[in-house]
Amino acid sequence: MPFDWETDFYAATDWDRGAYVGGDDMPEHLATFFERVGVPDTVADVGCGPALVDFELAPRYPDTAFYGYDVAPSVVESNREQAAEAGLSNLSFAVDALPDLAIDREFDLVYCMATLYFVDDVERALTELYDRVAPGGHLVFNYPNRYTRTWVHEETSGEKREAFGLVGAGENLLSYDAIESVLGRRPESYWTAVGARGEPYASRRSPAVFVRKPASP
């Protein structure tokens, strides 16, 4: 059976409110990206999980509306309660999942980290994410590649290997060329853009990129 985030993780473990790639550095990286490309009015975090990035940045950018989406209802409900307790009226959450999103609007920035590892139709997922980016906006994401697959086989076991089963089987791997083929735009390195090149999590087995959608003519 495929890994289920609700039953196999959030309902079964004592999870932390953190980021699964890059840890506590990730909010500052996205803030750096904001300052580089312009602070967005709207941000969608797809596969937000415990939403560390959103909770850290929402108070710092009160004029930006943050929307978090995740497949697991329990983490969405926990995030809603935390946002209400913190009085963060610019932060909201809903249940949704790749590869087919029900979101019916566009955002200035769509952010998707540590999520595509677990999506089978990864090219469809990329199209869905890019379709939610407003003209002139940006898509930021990381993705599994052949080096991630090697990591799964050489450095994981048990439940972790099961969770990364799609990557281990090579069913959802991407590359710069594959991304360009799907989106019609050449990706650029997010790690380089935010000054994270050289950090242990910014390795070749965990590439992160961004793509700008052209503005409307």
Question: Could you name the key traits of this structure?
Answer:
18% strand, 217 residues, alpha/beta, seven-stranded mixed sheet, 10 helices, Rossmann fold
Structural notes for this entry:
The chain is an alpha/beta fold and 217 residues long. It has a single domain (5-212), classed as Vaccinia Virus protein VP39 (Rossmann fold, 3-Layer(aba) Sandwich). Helices cover 37% and strands 18% of the residues. The chain is built from ten helices and seven strands. The protein has helices at residues 5-10, 26-37, 52-57, 73-86, 122-131, 146-155, 158-163, 165-168, 176-183, 190-193, and strands at residues 42-46, 65-70, 91-95, 107-112, 133-142, 188-189, 208-212. The protein has a seven-stranded mixed sheet with strand order 3-2-1-4-5-7-6. α5 (122-131) links the parallel β4 (107-112) and β5. The model has no long low-confidence stretch (mean pLDDT 93).
